[in-house]
Design brief:
Elements lengths: L12 H22 L6 H14 L6 E4 L2 E5 L4 E5 L2 E4 L2 E4 L2 E5 L4 E12 L3 E11 L4 E11 L3 E11 L4 E4 L3 E5 L3 E4 L1 E5 L4 E11 L3 E11 L4 E4 L3 E5 L4 E4 L2 E4 L4 E4 L3 E5 L2 E5 L1 E5 L4 E12 L4 E11 L4 E12 L4 E4 L2 E4 L2 E14 L10 E2 L7 H5 L2 H18 L6 E2 L2 H5 L27 H4 L20 H4 L1 E15 L2 E11 L4 E5 L3 E4 L2 E4 L2 E7 L2 E16 L6 E14 L2 E18 L6 E17 L2 E8 L3 E6 L52 H4 L12 H51 L1
Parallel strand pairs: 31-32
Antiparallel strand pairs: 1-4, 2-3, 3-6, 4-5, 5-7, 6-7, 7-8, 8-9, 9-10, 10-11, 10-12, 11-14, 12-13, 13-15, 14-15, 15-16, 16-17, 16-18, 17-20, 18-19, 19-22, 20-21, 21-24, 22-23, 23-25, 24-25, 25-26, 26-27, 27-30, 28-29, 30-33, 33-34, 34-35, 34-36, 35-38, 36-37, 37-39, 38-39, 39-40, 40-41, ...
Pfam family, one: OstA_2
Protein name: Organic solvent tolerance-like N-terminal domain-containing protein
Organism: Pedobacter antarcticus 4BY
């Protein structure tokens, strides 16, 4: 039998209950004020209704008990296994002390509150005030409804508003999430739970940590109202200060100071939307996607993210920055020289390297430079070393070799290259037994032992099968700016695997005072510096010196250029190569000759961004003309010169606006009269002659203006008659005076 509490230990209980009740109400009011901005209008209306209902006091009814003892002097009843009823709630426990006149009781052990068969609350102790309709539960408190279970050590529950409050730590468990925090509110009617201080939401997909949040156990939506970190199971982390996340559907919206990070990649945006199950995200305004490993940054105003493909697409003022090892002097200080790329649409993706068709560095075979040694002397030795380095590079990586060959060599094999029959009869006396090695040294030994059970045959994994690399695509109005290179095209592709920029559809590239055009252009970086350029089909290069109109031109089927220290150093033109270039006098002050050549190959040497030498190679035809004999400019077929389309700064890669062309001044068709005063001397604008109107136009104008002009002319004629009459009257008076004056003057 359970021992009942003695009256001596309960003399101070009513005062304690009243104090705890007042303290609980005061705390709830303060806490409600602190989070009032988080509560919807519906909940405030609900609280108002609850307050009105609380004013209608009802008595607690003792329905039954196994045993009771009444102290009439103090109006206190001690009960064993009592069953209380208060409005729509049934309250039971192992033992209780009931203060009938005060309309409250204290319950102990196996406390259970059942409200309207929807909410069940369990605890070890309960102080219940029937007037305030507030239950103060302590020790192993558990509140259960249809969607969640709340556990804590101390809980204040309002029976009218159905709001539970804890301040010493609590936990809510639902089907999809577990939420813990220091302070919390739970609204049973709306199924909303508000959490404050060290709030943590744990789901199968993520762990959410926030300072302040709201969670609805019915809809599974979580709302953030302060600094929040969402840690995904795959390692991604999102920081935000305002947003919402559904723990069931994994839909999410984030609207303030958003930052998503995953390994070396990060994404910022004013607004982020994400569907976790579909792996689809959307970013709006001030988007910044960055990868510190690839030294790449992507910006724009509208972006999309596809998690399964690891693909990001950005539009609306989209541009991209790539770090290089080049540097540029700014105020005599070296600054990193990044490559900036802008387009209508930019796309970046991590792809399997084996799925790409990689390019090797361009290689110039020495066989294609016949006769060049005699022309260049020591320069050929430098070229041989360059070829050797290029061949080593080509053999190191890549699947597609851009080896330059002459058309003759592609169709006519050399005699020494023709294969011969290398099979000869081998006689025993010619066999060198020291060369032949046993087969067991060439092949690994075959293990004929039985396989152990549970061990499966497997092939070694090739790292290239799983290796991923970054690929970048740009579509429409592509523009690139770098201090030593600028470009435009319709589309572009780049992959970090071969560090090659590929331009397609009407590409134009500018470098210092040179311009290159063609059907397709490749620019390859080595050690994050521009190393080479290749122009395929309809290749055309133009070079012009500042403040001159002399265009040096070369064209062919293929142009290959090499850079040194960020500047164009040499260029090879192959396949029906043509050139037009100008030479200067010995003092280098003026041009003296124009040279025009046709050959199989042309080699151009640059120095300080100017052409130093042009060397035609094999099947050369040409002519030289003095500059003074040129009657007009010599232009090769396919000549293009578009300096107005060249990006001049980083700003020009987005919303590029070419400089406006000055309007030609209007020329006068009439010659000035002799002795006329010039407009410039007087500061007045010179009047331009008007076109003489036709006779019909004059007649129509006269008919239209006659009603308006006639009254004015009649008035003028009338005044003219009046002036004549006044003159006739004044003449006899004025004439003697005038004669006298004339006399005196004489």
């Amino acid at each position: 039998m359970q021992k009942l509490h003695t009256p001596g230990k309960l003399n101070s209980v009513p005062g304690y209950i009243a104090f705890q009740s007042r303290q609980s109400i005061l705390f709830r009011l303060l806490f409600c004020i602190s989070v009032c901005l988080l509560l919807p209008v519906a909940l405030s209306a609900q609280t108002s209704t609850a307050a009105q209902s609380a004013q209608q006091r009802t008595k607690i009814i003792l329905q039954s008990s196994e045993r009771s003892r009444i102290i009439t002097k103090t109006d206190v009843t001690y009960l064993r296994k009592p069953v209380f009823k208060h409005e729509n709630a049934i309250l039971t426990c192992d033992s209780a002390v009931f203060y009938t006149s005060k309309n409250y009781f204290e319950a102990y052990d196996n406390v259970h509150i059942n409200q309207a068969d929807t909410i069940n609350i369990y605890s070890d102790k309960l102080n219940y005030d029937g007037n305030a309709k507030i239950a103060h539960l302590t020790e192993r408190v558990r509140m259960v409804d249809k969607t969640s279970v709340l556990t804590t050590n101390v809980l204040d529950y309002d029976m009218v508003s159905k709001v539970g409050t804890y301040v010493n730590g609590g936990k809510i468990v639902t089907k999809d999430a577990t939420i813990t925090s220091k302070n919390g509110f739970y609204f049973a009617n709306s199924r909303d739970a508000y959490f404050r201080y060290n709030a943590v939401v744990v789901t199968d997909q993520s762990v959410i940590k926030s300072d302040t949040l709201r969670y609805n156990t019915l809809t599974n939506w979580t709302y953030f109202y302060g600094p929040t970190n969402i840690k995904e199971k795959d390692g991604g982390n999102l920081y935000t200060e305002n947003g919402a996340y559904n723990t069931n559907t994994t839909y999410a919206y984030f609207g303030k100071k958003n930052l998503y990070t995953s390994g070396s990649r990060s994404l910022k945006g004013d607004s982020l939307y994400y569907d976790g199950k579909a792996g689809y995200g959307k970013a709006v305004r001030n988007i910044v996607f960055q990868d510190t490993t690839d030294h790449m940054m992507l910006r724009g105003q509208l972006g999309y993210y596809y998690k399964n493909d690891q693909r990001t697409v950005v539009t609306k003022n989209a541009y991209l920055g790539m770090g290089t090892n080049d540097s540029v002097l700014v105020d005599n200080i070296k600054q990193p020289d990044s490559l900036w790329l802008g387009a209508d649409t930019l796309e970046t993706q991590m792809v399997l390297q084996k799925s790409l068709r990689l390019l090797d560095g361009p290689v110039i075979k020495k066989d294609n430079e016949l006769g060049e040694e005699n022309r260049e002397g020591k320069a050929s030795l430098v070229r041989q070393q360059e070829n050797s380095d290029a061949e080593k590079y080509a053999g190191r990586t890549g699947k597609e070799s851009a080896v330059l060959k002459k058309p003759e060599e592609e169709t006519k094999p050399k005699e020494k290259d023709v294969p011969t029959d290398s099979l000869k009869k081998i006689t025993p006396q010619h066999i060198d037994t020291t060369v032949i090695k046993p087969v067991k040294q060439l092949l690994p030994p075959i293990n004929l032992a039985k396989k152990k059970p549970g061990i499966k045959d497997s092939l070694p994994v090739n790292p290239m099968d799983t290796m991923r690399t970054r690929a970048i695509k740009a579509f429409h109005n592509v523009r690139v700016y770098k201090s030593n290179m600028q470009a435009k095209a319709d589309s572009l592709f780049y992959t970090a695997a071969d560090s090659t920029l590929r331009w397609y559809k009407n590409p134009i590239i500018w470098s210092q005072s040179s311009q290159q055009t063609g059907d397709t252009i490749y620019v390859q970086l080595r050690n994050k510096k521009i190393n080479s350029i290749q122009i395929l089909q309809n290749a055309f290069a133009v070079n012009v010196e500042p403040d001159t109109a002399k265009f040096n031109q070369v064209k062919g089927k293929l142009i290959t250029g090499f850079f040194k220290d960020g500047k164009l150093n040499s260029m090879y033109v192959d396949g029906n190569a043509e050139s037009v270039y100008f030479t200067k006098t010995d003092d280098g002050k003026k041009y003296d000759k124009m040279n025009q050549t046709i050959s199989s190959r042309i080699k151009v040497i640059f120095r300080d961004s100017e052409i130093q030498d042009v060397v035609p190679i094999k099947d050369v035809e040409g002519a030289t003309t003095p500059v003074e004999d040129l009657k007009e400019d010599v232009i090769l077929t396919g000549f293009i010169w578009k300096p107005e389309l060249r990006p001049r700064s980083k700003k020009d890669i987005v919303n590029f606006k070419p400089p406006a062309k000055p309007k030609p001044a209007a020329k006068s068709k009439t010659k000035g009269l002799p002795g006329a005063i010039k407009a410039k001397e007087t500061g007045l604008k010179q009047l331009q002659p008007k076109q003489v109107p036709s006779a019909n136009a004059v007649k129509k104008a006269a008919v239209t203006l006659l009603p308006v002009v006639k009254p004015v002319t009649d008035s003028l004629l009338k005044k003219t008659d009046e002036i004549k009459k006044a003159a006739d009257i004044a003449a006899p008076l004025v004439k003697p005076v005038a004669d006298s004056v004339l006399k005196k003057l004489k």
